[in-house]
Request: fold
Amino acid sequence: MKSLTLLRLVGVLTLPISLAGIPLYGQGQQPSSQDPAAQSQPSDQESSQSQPTHIFVGKITKSKGELVLKDDADTVYKLDNTDQAKPWVGKTVKITGTLDDATKTIHVTNMEAPSS
Reply:
């Protein structure tokens, strides 16, 4: 009888320990900081990096008071960094970046003179 009581006691003590490694879902707990899925949502810049990078060639011009890129097909693209474009006004540039199709905005990674 004593050994049966001892087995029950050991079982009662080991059950909570063995269950401690099982995550509790739906219990309103916040994920731990060690959980990779618990990391913060990507910023706009990070999410734009998951989009394919493109090369755009055109002339930096002013449109409605903003600096934009106008390509040979007369497509106008907004630029997310107009300060970087200021030295290029009226000049042809090669821009590397990602395009936000919804707003026709180029998220500029690099801006340089096109290679000849």
Summary: The longest strand covers residues 54-63. Confidence is low (pLDDT under 50) at residues 29-33, 35-49.
